[in-house]
Write a structure and sequence with these properties.
The complex is a heterodimer of chains A (270) and B (350). In chain A, 29% of the residues lie in helices and 30% in strands. Chain A is an alpha/beta fold and 270 residues long. In chain A, the strands form 3 sheets. Chain A has a 9-stranded mixed sheet with strand order 11-10-9-12-8-1-6-7-13, with helices on both faces. A two-stranded antiparallel sheet of chain A has the order 2-5. In chain A, helix 2 runs antiparallel to helix 5 and helix 3 crosses helix 4. Chain A is globular. The termini of chain A are far apart. Chain B is elongated, with a radius of gyration of 23 Å. In chain B, helix 5 runs parallel beside helix 8. The N terminus of chain B is likely disordered. A 9-stranded mixed sheet of chain B has the order 7-6-5-8-4-1-2-3-9, with helices on both faces. Chain B has a 5-stranded parallel sheet with strand order 12-11-13-14-15. Chain B folds into 2 domains: 173 residues, HUPs (Rossmann fold), CATH 3.40.50; 147 residues, TPP-binding domain (Rossmann fold). With 350 residues, chain B is of the alpha/beta class. The chains are: A alpha/beta (270), B alpha/beta (350). At the A-B interface, helix 4, strand 9, strand 10, strand 11 and strand 14 of A face helix 3, helix 4, strand 5, strand 6 and strand 7 of B. Strand 11 of chain A pairs antiparallel with strand 10 of chain B.
Chain lengths: 270, 350
């Protein structure tokens, strides 16, 4: 594509997967205990989308990459200290609540507003990237809803690979049931691509990239628009940790043969 | 129907689609039919079922025993899953059925378009539903934070779209028969996407088997140094491959093992990110699960949420993640145990 792509990556923040999570009910509904104290990372699937987007931009001169992220400014700043070192992008922060319990529909509306207001965005060249689900709500709604709000009617979810062609069209591999990929060819932008893991490894930190990014990130954070994600149609009746604990039998003194015998019998049992 | 208002009387629509044959409903669709019938019966509500696919009328014959109003969208344009055509088809069925609650399977085909359809209908969507309740109005159960906590929620707005996770209801299995269907016309938008087919590993190399009874989870320990100080990657690959061949099990993997491929370390050649279970992977449903050489929350808590009987082989007797999560933990060397298991299974087979 001669003019390149305008890629907008929507990415949320999630608690570090190694943290223990506990729900609490607050005045605004459910949330996580000590949520603001938990270390956060960029949502893993959205991070895959960001790395794939950066590769597309690098391979197609004239392309541009925006990262749109909704969350409290302090959290965004913390996460950007790491992510900014990975790839070059322009951050579009939206100051709002973090977590899995705010409604995905309201989140999508806030993201669509932010994208619609981007200076210099050419919607005919727009590829809207993000994770196909988040590691918080896991709704698989936000990106699709945002795409609809922006009037994009070519959408792909569970994407592991795109191959861009010289005429601007691209081949997409989407995950479907049974460990297979569906292969489609799209005529070109605009399109929504909700990424699964993709094929790229996490880029190594590059301090120079980080410094260049942070020059734009800090002013953007200061100017971040504040949004409220109120949704009066949604109510939570209960939020609980699973209580089921199993009585675990620890077998320390069986030989490999005895264990194998037991496992084979267990597999064969109906 | 007033799509923006609160309904005092629910009307249920089950949205389904055909499988790759084009003329039969998917298993997940039939499970959703069961859920719809149960919900409609509990609420005393009308039930409609919509079918999308190349030969939707033929597929609808399997629903003869439901007694539901049947609506279909058929034709070559719907032979394959594509956003523009599927969204238009689902939107047309939803408008024709004019229902307040729409149930659909959380299949890749429906999940791709459900949010768009709900938006066009002025509705709301919740996904990964694992339970339905209607004691005090319709309420649903779903998991948050990748199966770490469970919530019950409800909405006042309608239409309310609900995508049900596979395996939460038995599949509908009524006698097929002649049915009266209402063919719904669809105004198709311009098609900018062409579906060319599927890409999958060679038949004997496919290690993801959703219908398997057993899930075998391989952890990073398989590619670590063994007691002789050496890494035995190829031996690990051979043992696991043989186990999968002999048992027909599906293969899952921990994130750490899959990620090693990006760091140019020794990995199992048949593993991809699609095998990954846990926080950034799948949460499959199988009757039994056997984890080997795993350590951490990913395989034992998140990835195993919907596994029935769980056993683990680990060298770490004090692994806190297996305790309370697995039924049995064998403290042993997985290389030795799986090798002997394979021998026993091979002997049985002959």
């Amino acid at each position: 594509m001669a003019e390149g792509f305008h890629i907008v990556v929507c990415a949320g923040m999630v608690p570090d997967p190694l943290q223990t999570l506990e729900p609490v009910i607050g005045p605004n509904g459910p949330g996580l205990k000590n949520e603001m104290m938990l270390p956060a990372v960029l949502d893993p699937w959205a991070a895959s989308a960001l790395y794939e987007a950066a590769q597309v931009v690098a391979q197609h001169p004239g392309s541009k990459l925006w990262l749109v992220s909704l969350g409290p400014k302090a959290k965004l700043q913390q996460v950007m200290m790491t992510i900014a070192q990975k790839v070059s992008f322009e951050l579009v922060p939206v100051d709002g609540p973090i977590g899995g319990f705010p409604d995905a529909h309201a989140t999508a509306a806030a993201l669509a507003d932010a994208i619609g207001a981007l200076q210099g965005l050419n919607r005919e060249r727009l590829l809207l990237f993000g994770g196909w689900e988040s590691a918080t709500r896991g709704a698989g709604i936000t990106l699709q809803w945002t795409g609809e709000l922006l009037g994009i009617t070519d959408q792909f979810q569970g994407v592991d690979q795109i191959t861009l062609r010289a005429d601007g069209s691209f081949e997409v591999l989407e995950r479907v049931e049974g460990g297979k990929h569906q292969v489609s060819v799209c005529a070109g932008a605009p399109a929504v691509l909700g990424w699964a893991t993709g094929n790229l490894a996490e880029p190594r930190n590059n301090p120079q990239t980080g410094m260049a990014n942070m020059r734009g990130i800090m002013p953007a954070l200061q100017k971040a628009k504040q949004v409220k994600l109120a949704d009066n149609t949604l109510s939570y009746r209960a939020v609980n940790l699973p209580a089921q604990q199993r009585e675990t039998r620890i077998e320390k003194n069986l030989t490999a043969d005895e264990i194998a015998q037991e496992i084979v019998q267990w597999i064969a049992a109906e | 129907m007033d799509c923006g208002g609160v309904m005092s009387m629910e009307k249920i629509l089950v949205l389904t689609h055909v499988d790759e044959s084009g003329a039969a409903l998917t298993r997940a669709s039939l499970e959703t039919v069961t859920a719809g019938m149960e919900l409609a019966a509990a609420l005393g509500a009308e039930l409609a079922i919509g079918v999308v696919g190349q030969k939707a009328e033929t597929a609808a014959q399997a629903l003869a025993g439901t007694g539901a109003r049947l609506l279909t969208v058929s034709g070559d344009a719907f032979a394959q899953a594509r956003y523009a055509s599927d969204a238009a088809a689902c939107e047309a069925i939803c408008r024709a059925a004019a229902c307040s609650v729409v149930l659909a399977p959380a299949s890749s085909r429906i999940a791709r378009v459900a949010a768009g359809v709900a938006h066009r209908l002025g509705g709301f969507l919740d996904t990964h539903i694992t339970g339905l309740d209607c004691a005090e109005g319709v309420a649903v159960t779903r998991w948050f934070y990748r199966q770490r906590m469970e919530a019950v929620l409800s909405r006042t707005a309608r239409p309310w779209f609900l995508l049900l996770d596979a395996g939460t209801h038995p599949a509908f299995a009524g006698e097929p028969g002649p049915v009266t269907v209402e063919a719904v016309n669809v105004a198709l938008p311009e098609q900018r996407t062409v579906v060319e087919g599927y890409r999958e590993p060679a038949r004997d190399a496919q290690t993801i088997r959703p219908d398997a009874k057993l899930l075998f989870v391989a952890g990073a320990g398989w590619t670590k140094k063994q007691p002789d100080g050496q890494i035995h990657g190829s031996e690990a690959a051979e043992q696991i491959k043989q186990f999968l061949l002999l048992t027909g099990a599906s293969l899952g993997s921990s994130k750490s093992l899959v990620d090693q491929s990006g760091d140019n370390e020794t990995v199992l050649p048949f593993l991809t990110h699609m095998n990954q279970i846990g926080q950034t992977g799948a949460t499959p449903r199988h009757a039994k699960g056997l984890s080997t050489c795993c350590h951490g929350e990913e395989p034992h808590v998140v990835g195993w949420r919907f596994i029935g009987e769980r056993r683990a082989i680990s060298l770490d007797a004090n692994c806190g993640w297996t305790r309370g999560k697995a039924d049995v933990v064998y403290v042993a060397d997985a290389f030795q145990v799986v090798s002997r298991v394979n021998t026993l299974l091979a002997n049985r087979a002959t």
